[in-house]
Amino acid sequence: MVAATALLRRAGQLQVDTPVQLPVQCVPYRFTWEGGTPPFVFSVVSDTTPRTRPERFPGITENSNVWASDIPAGTAIFFKVRDSAGAHMKTNAITVQPGSSDICLAGAPATSSSTSSEQSSSTTSS
Fold it and tell me: What is the pLDDT of residue 105?
């Protein structure tokens, strides 16, 4: 399995891993991936309420995106990345953790810009 993962990464194919560090409600969260052909579309999809419209961030030219973590704590989500060649991958479901604020849940628009106080994802192969 490790050899296969290494071959995929060397070939420049899109690789998305499930984060070890979980997102915290209302704390900016950086999600990263490897390979693929930009621009990318990054999506946050609710696994708890599948009919909820995903948050989509198109036109990303880097292999990362900062997400506002504007989904309530306790919600199961997964991240999905699609590249311009049509390749797409998603993480396993993870759960948004409680934070000290809920200000981002008041209908504020999602953001995909970098901030200095963001939480980064650590990943593990899925």
Answer: 87
